[in-house]
Design a protein that fits this description.
Elements: H1 2-19, E1 20-29, E2 32-33, E3 38-41, E4 47-49, E5 55-61, E6 63-71, E7 74-82, E8 86-91, H2 94-107, E9 117-121, H3 122-126, H4 134-137, E10 144-148, E11 157-161, E12 169-173, E13 176-177, E14 198-205, E15 219-225, E16 233-241, E17 245-253, E18 261-272, E19 281-293, E20 297-311, E21 317-318, H5 319-325, E22 334-336, E23 342-344, E24 349-364, E25 369-392, E26 401-403, E27 406-408, E28 410-434, E29 437-459, E30 470-490, E31 495-512, E32 517-537, E33 540-551, H6 555-559, E34 566-578, E35 582-594, E36 597-603, E37 609-613, E38 616-629, E39 634-648, E40 651-654, E41 657-660, E42 664-665, E43 672-683, E44 686-695, E45 698-699, E46 709-710, E47 713-725, E48 732-740, E49 748-759, E50 765-775, E51 780-788
Parallel strand pairs: 1-8, 12-15
Antiparallel strand pairs: 1-2, 1-5, 3-4, 3-6, 6-7, 9-14, 10-11, 12-13, 14-15, 16-17, 16-51, 17-18, 18-19, 19-20, 20-24, 21-50, 22-23, 24-25, 25-28, 26-27, 28-29, 29-30, 30-31, 31-32, 32-33, 33-34, 34-35, 35-38, 36-37, 38-39, 39-42, 39-43, 40-41, 43-44, 44-47, 45-46, 47-48, 48-51, 49-50
């Protein structure tokens, strides 16, 4: 009997195995195979990626299936009646992806180009999009470190890539520069909940390809907004969480009307008290899009923007303040009244509006040529308000006054420092493609005009001031023109060559500061890039690239005496492995700088980091990231970046004299950054993820002072998403939860370091340092529900 049962079991097993069939497919577009396309069996957790030849394979039981194939933000579905093993082809037509194909080819790359990059898709963004800014949604990407002034990811947030801060990460939205032209920073607080209108983003580490705006000295971030929707939909999303955080938004699309027109929009509001005391945020934003589509044309008109009002929390906190007041203490707005009581000004805020208009026109001229042209305009206007004690009249152009026979030459006052700016221009590209050759010509012309001025809106002693007097006036005018040509062509069936040449001209004139600094400068930059990609086989390729880049100083660099432009030689050597269950990327980089503008660790009077030219310096590192798909519903996505970052023969003023400290560590550059995401999907509608991040210790200055170290930290978060499907007007409800820092790690992800000199009795000078930190929240949570119609 035992043997009979065993035989029956074996026969049953063989029967089941006999029903398993193999489906092999190839994903292409007009230009050939698409590597890295995502293929999912709808209604299951089965999926895979195409290899470098665009090929995928899946093993399934007999039956009818719908395959969902997505690439570069565009998605196609194909139904397969699987009765025997078969081979299929999925082809993206120009009609499917005319906008994304042109935009992506102009500023993005794929596995055939020798550039180090990572992508973040809309689906990955949605799983944690509960109100935190885009930098926090990117936190688990390779070599990325994020921070939040308010401590919880809402309000002012920052990002560093390979140790380079946000001023050195070139950001474009639909190919249009987003970095502020003068400061070169990116302020995501001005576009709250923008992630809800993002189709995908690509982070190119290192110099990357030629793009518009200031040069990339750490990375390029290319953001693509929502694609045209084929079908009408509406969504209502609400989320709530710690620190009285809540987000509400509505989204809609008409779908294609008359097969040509589409309207879509989003309106959002976010409020949070912040983890840090009084670090509140009151944020509103919108996104509107009108599109026209036909077989060879796509025109988009976009209007989006936001209004932010945040209580300032950029001062950070020093050790003695942590000991006396606790980690959440915020000194912004603090003053002493006439009775000696400590109080806090209730309107110590940053208040800013930013509105963007983009007109995008993509045209397929014939089977070889396509073009893209964009016009854009951004209007920004706002101020930050501060209560300031014991200010000298002379600093504000005021005259001393006599009261009761006493000369008064200082006062308490409240100021508003205004910024009123306009940014406009055009970007353009033309692409030629045929078998084995891909050439893009492109460029941009952009103009920035900004007014800076200060007002005293209240003073205890107003002296000779008049209402709406300006105690300082400044301006900034900047013109940025660039033109580039890049090409990717096959030298053989296995070897691809890549070349990219950009010419960039920048002219800048400004009047800056209370004590006016006159700036007038212009630059002509030539930025070449070359590389090779060798396809070892269908799942392995290796690449090597070299890029030379230049970058101009920003406004505060001139004010602080560091007006030299930066130069960078970037070498990248990488290996990509792309199998059906395992995707692995690894690369070694060497970035050699001349006059790199490194952060000194110090802050200016408005909390902005001060940079200085460091002479010779370099960054050498290894980056590895992988996606592993296990059969039993598990996915693993680890990444690690190991690096050494050095200033060479660093010279600094210390103890009253110039000292050569030899090779020192570059500030804000940890030697190890690692992340991991473990995902379990027991059923297709439920996703459970454990996310982890480790950031090694780093120095907050370039002098290797022990008291300038920021300690290493390790945090973990838990993310859950569950979709409840319906079959009527309400299509589904998506429930999302996120618990951040589940082990309640007490850590700071950012800080500052300042030095001061003390005169000794013997006439010598001793330099001392002080360290400040930006504490991040302990365990906190966000939960949300999205109703999809």
């Amino acid at each position: 009997m035992k043997y009979v049962c065993t035989l029956l079991l074996c026969l049953s097993f063989l029967g089941i195995r006999a029903q398993e069939l193999k489906i092999t497919g190839k994903v292409t577009d007009e230009n050939g195979p698409l590597a890295g396309a995502n293929v999912i069996v709808k209604g299951t957790n089965k999926g895979t990626l195409t290899n470098f030849d665009g090929v995928f394979s899946l093993t399934l039981l007999k039956g009818q299936y719908t395959l969902v194939v997505s690439y570069a933000g565009i998605q196609k579905e194909q139904t397969v009646n699987l009765q025997q093993s078969q081979t299929i082809t999925v082809k993206f037509s120009q009609k499917d992806n005319v906008l994304d194909e042109v935009l992506v080819s102009a500023i993005r790359v794929n596995g055939e180009v020798p550039v180090t990059y990572s992508n973040l898709t809309k689906k990955e963004i949605e799983s944690r999009n509960l109100g935190q800014d885009i930098p926090f949604l990117m936190n688990y990407m390779p070599s990325v470190v994020t921070t939040s002034d308010a401590g919880a990811g809402v309000g002012y947030t920052g990002i560093r890539v390979r140790g380079s801060d946000a001023t050195r990460v070139n950001v474009t939205i639909n190919g249009i520069p987003y970095n502020d032209a003068e400061s070169q920073g990116t302020y995501w607080v001005d576009l709250p909940d923008f992630a809800s209108s993002v189709q995908s983003l690509q982070l190119q580490r290192g110099v990357g390809t030629s793009s518009n705006g200031a040069g990339a000295f750490g990375a390029s971030l290319n953001v693509l907004t929502d694609a045209v929707s084929q079908h009408a939909y509406a969504e209502i999303a609400n989320s709530f969480g710690s620190f009285n955080t809540h987000k509400h938004n509505v989204k809609f699309s008409t779908g294609k009307l008359d097969d040509h027109f589409e309207l879509q929009g989003r309106f959002s509001t976010i409020q949070s008290d912040g983890y840090i005391d009084r670090a509140s945020s009151n944020l509103n934003s919108y996104f509107l899009q009108a599109a026209y589509v036909d077989d060879n044309t796509l025109i988009k008109a976009l209007l989006f923007g936001g209004h932010e009002k945040t209580y300032q929390s950029w001062n950070g906190i020093e050790n003695w303040q942590i000991e006396e007041f606790g980690r959440r203490y915020n000194s912004a707005g603090e003053y002493t009244d006439e009775d000696g009581n400590t109080k806090y000004y209730d309107n110590e805020i940053d208040n800013y509006d930013q509105n963007h208009f983009q007109l995008l026109w993509n045209q397929q001229l014939d089977e070889h040529w396509s073009t893209n042209i964009a016009l854009h305009y951004t209007k920004g206007n706002g101020y930050y308000e501060q209560y300031e004690e014991d200010q000298d009249f002379a600093d504000y152009g005021l005259q001393p006054i006599e009261i009761g026979g006493q000369t008064i030459d200082s006062t308490n006052l409240i100021t508003r420092k205004w910024l009123d700016n306009d940014f406009y221009g055009t970007t353009f590209s033309a692409k030629y493609q045929q078998e084995g050759l891909d050439v893009t010509f492109g460029g941009a012309w952009n103009k920035y005009e900004g007014d800076h001025y200060g007002e005293i809106i209240w003073a205890r002693y107003a002296s000779n001031s008049e209402i709406r007097d300006h105690y300082y006036d400044g301006f900034g005018n900047k013109t940025d023109f660039n033109f580039y040509t890049k090409a990717n062509f096959k030298l053989s069936s296995k070897l691809n060559a890549y070349g990219d040449v950009q010419y960039r001209r920048v002219t800048y004139a400004a009047l800056s500061g209370n004590i006016p600094t006159e700036i007038e400068d212009d630059f002509n930059f030539f930025n070449p890039k070359v590389g090779l990609t060798y396809n070892v086989n269908s799942i392995n390729n290796i690449y090597f690239s070299y890029a030379h880049a230049h970058r101009e100083p920003n406004r505060t660099d001139y004010e602080n005496g560091s007006p030299k432009p930066e130069k960078l030689h970037d070498f990248e050597l990488g290996w990509r492995y792309n199998a059906s269950k395992v995707k692995l990327n690894s690369n070694v980089y060497y970035m050699r700088y001349k006059d790199q503008l490194v952060l000194t660790g110090a802050l200016d009077d408005v909390g902005a980091p001060i940079r200085a030219n460091s002479g010779d310096s370099y960054r050498l590192g290894l980056e590895v990231d992988a996606t592993i798909n296990f059969e039993n519903h598990w996915f693993l996505q680890p990444n690690v970046a190991l690096s050494t970052n050095k200033n060479i023969d660093f010279v600094t003023q210390r103890d009253g004299e110039l000292q050569n400290l030899g090779n020192t560590n570059i500030s804000y550059s940890p030697n190890i950054v690692a992340g991991n995401r473990v995902t379990y999907m027991p059923v297709p509608t439920l996703q459970l993820s454990l996310l982890s991040k480790y950031v090694g210790e780093q120095y907050l200055a370039n002098i290797d002072a022990e008291d300038s170290k920021l300690e290493a930290y390790f945090t973990s978060s838990f993310n859950v998403q569950y979709e409840i499907p319906f079959h009527n007007v309400l299509k589904s409800i998506v429930l999302t939860g996120l618990v951040n820092n589940i082990f309640n790690e007490k850590y700071s992800s950012n800080g500052y370091y300042y030095t001061y000199d003390v005169d000794n009795d013997n006439g010598s000078v001793t330099t001392y340092g002080g360290t400040g930190y930006y504490p991040q929240a302990g365990t906190n949570f966000l939960v949300g529900a999205t109703l999809k119609f």
